[in-house]
Specification:
Maf protein, alpha/beta, binds inosinic acid, seven-stranded mixed β-sheet, single chain
Length: 199
């Protein structure tokens, strides 16, 4: 039964852990890198979300030999030809500052009419030595100034379709009604469910 499966989530981002645990509830126990005693700054050198997600799960599998998954997420802005995309974390430089990234985004969008954007998450699951990828997309708009204190990253300037509030104005539960990460996680859970009924 997959409920008793030991699955490491290959991330050091506590926000991602909280969001995914909120989706999973009691259905699946995930173990964070911290809980597994792994201190690793996992590289993300590739130019697609898919390749980075695969690289991160492969890295942790090589280190532990355990079943694991990772995720890579990007904000894809239509008027910026899909940027910052895979470069979302380092958009304004290697210091990975959320505020500097948002400032750069707002300044690059200042003269644009089209403010549509989407978050895209790719999860890479490595189980029994085999890989599966799951994608989750959330469409929305970039507003002109920050609103809200919750969440992380670009949350203060992103309003998902179907709401008039930014992700940073939403509780975890509310964000998870719309979230890209939630949609990808649900596909992961459906796959694991199917796997366990076929065993
Ligand atoms: P990565 O998947 O850790 O490489 O994340 C890339 C960057 O995208 C993060 O540093 C955040 O700035 C941003 N990001 C990822 N997920 C979210 C989200 O759910 N909301 C807002 N920003 C996010």
């Amino acid at each position: 039964m997959y409920k008793h499966m030991k699955l490491i989530f290959a991330t050091n981002n506590q926000h991602k852990v909280d969001e995914i645990r909120n989706v999973l509830g009691q259905t699946l126990d995930i173990i964070t890198l911290k809980e597994a005693g792994i201190e690793a700054d996992i590289p993300e050198p590739y130019d697609t979300l898919e390749a980075n997600a695969s690289g991160k799960s492969a890295y942790i599998f090589q280190l532990t030999g355990a079943d694991c998954f990772s995720e890579d997420t990007g904000l894809e802005v239509a008027a910026l030809n899909g940027e910052p995309g895979v470069k979302s974390a380092r958009y304004a430089g290697e210091h990975r500052s959320f505020d500097a990234n948002i400032d750069k985004l707002l300044s690059n969008l200042a003269a644009k009419q089209d403010r549509s954007a989407r978050f895209r998450t790719v999860i890479s699951l490595l189980i029994d030595g085999k890989e599966m990828l799951f994608e989750g997309i959330c469409n929305g708009q970039i507003i002109t100034e920050k609103r809200g204190e919750l969440g992380f990253g670009y949350d203060p300037v992103f309003i998902p379709e179907g709401s008039d509030r930014t992700f940073a104005e939403m509780s975890l539960e509310e964000k998870n009604r719309f979230s890209h990460r939630k949609k990808a996680t649900e596909k992961l859970v459906a796959f694991l469910n199917k796997l366990s009924t076929n065993h």
